[in-house]
Amino acid sequence: MPLPEREFLLDEAYELADEDLALDFTALGRVGLADPEPSVRLRAIQALWESLDPAAGDLLVTLVETERDLDVRAAAARSLLRFLEAAEYGRLDERTARRMTAALLEAAASSVEGLRAAAVEALGPSGDPRVPAVIEAAYESGQPALRLAAIRAMGYSAREEWAEYIAEQLAADDPEMRFEAALAAGALGSEELVPALGEALSDDDAEVLFAVIEALGDIGGDEGVELLESYRDEAPPGLEDAVEAALEAARGIQFRRFGELP
After folding, report:
1. Among 17, 40, 140, 151, which residue is least crowded by beta carbons within 10 Å?
2. Which regions form coiled coils (predicted)?
């Protein structure tokens, strides 16, 4: 099959799977991962964006270990994040998780910034005791891509120790960093972040503000609900629905924390 057709087939598979989660293109994706063309391998990684198929996981970690094309290697590294998340919930065998973690730790020591950033981000959910030092080194590196990757990893980590780092970046000068910090705050779910998120409700960047509102909904708790209720009447035009959705989510979490039905 000619290269354009192989690329088109995987692009279509990705779009169809995104529209209908019942569709499964895992077998096609596995074939694509072994394609001789980097552009096809990249599309295959994208097409497998939700797959936890063990055979696909083996192929992806092999790409992290041996792939020569750096874009493909970085994409494969980033794709291992979902496998490590599954491992933390006992849905991935320990041998595979150890191999993936080892491959990512090696990639995180790379001198290539894009590869290192992808690996740091993917290591976020890992419970390996070596990972926090890798995340902190990326955060302290002074390199924007690595700092963003570190913030994302902190959000995926379920480690309360990162809350103060995320809170600090909610007030960063760079709107992209503030946006990623808001996403990380919601992912981490720590109530320690609610005061900093409350201050961030005055952010003048619409995307950041939307992410902050969603994060408060994701975290919930009495303080989060109070902040959203107070903010509802002063929210900028166009964000009313976002505030209402966040309030609904926050109240649901608040009730569940008291052991009641949402």
Report:
1. 140
2. none
